[in-house]
Design goal:
two-stranded parallel ribbon, Spore Coat Polysaccharide Biosynthesis Protein SpsA, Chain A, alpha/beta
Length: 243
């Protein structure tokens, strides 16, 4: 299946060449990447352009005017790719928090599901041992919180390592998605669940970024806690599709 993975970037000049090289070293001939760069000040966009020049059939780049947020980066990326011929559309971070070696396993999982989720919270999954206790607690609590309120069928509701069958994203009303922080992952999972799509979780180890600075902030965490309740109301009209 032709697979394209969206990688949002903002000041990832150290990571981008390494993550692209790792992806293209995989035994997947039909794997491509769409880089969505938010006008990075460290030259990430120029590096992306160079990969387009050297790998024109595998890399494309979307340059945005500024730091517009994770959610909008993915929405614009999904929309662009739905106008193409990708059968599978994925998302992952540029910073090696998500192991590229897991991509083939996630693709294989789509034989029996609609959304393959790289999960930290199923047996075999794990978090970086260097995370402080408070950060581990916050991550676990956030997932339990969202899963309980929304009745989601997955353990890792906030993770950003996912692959979707094309039909899932085509069915999601992108114009209604408003979350622009890490709760975006919860919103996308909730809509897909409400529409009746099937999930499968693949255990992953979530590593601390190797290079660069984390984008996580208190504002993002606060938005996530409040936004989860809004999702219940905003999507009360959605029902499973006839498939």
């Amino acid at each position: 299946m032709k697979t394209t993975i969206i990688i949002p970037t903002y000041n990832e000049a150290e990571n981008l060449p390494k993550i692209l090289t790792a992806l293209f070293d995989l035994p997947l001939k039909d794997l491509g990447v769409l880089i969505v760069d938010d006008n990075s000040s460290d030259g990430t966009g120029h590096i992306a352009d160079e990969f387009v020049r050297t790998h024109p059939k595998r890399v494309s780049v979307m340059h945005r005017a500024g730091k517009l947020g994770l959610g909008s980066a993915y929405i614009q990326g999904f929309t662009q790719l739905l106008n193409g011929d990708s059968e599978v559309i994925g998302q992952m971070d540029a910073d090696f928090s998500h192991n590229p070696q897991k991509v083939p396993e996630l693709i294989a999982a789509l034989e029996n599901c609609d959304v393959a989720v790289g999960s930290r919270y199923v047996p075999g999954g794990s978090l970086d041992q260097d995370w402080p206790y408070w950060r581990r607690w916050l991550s676990v609590f956030g997932n339990v919180y969202a899963r309980t309120i929304l009745g989601l069928p997955i353990q890792d509701t906030t993770g950003g390592f996912r692959l979707f069958r094309r039909g899932v994203l085509a069915a999601i009303p992108m114009e209604r998605v408003r979350s622009n922080g890490y709760v975006f992952q919860v919103e996308m999972a909730y809509i897909a669940h409400k529409l009746g799509f099937r999930f499968k979780e693949i255990p992953i180890h979530f590593a601390e970024r190797r290079w660069g600075v984390s984008k996580m902030s208190f504002k993002i965490q606060a938005e996530a806690a409040l936004r989860v309740w809004a999702l219940l109301y905003n999507y009360r009209d959605l029902n499973p599709l006839s498939k």
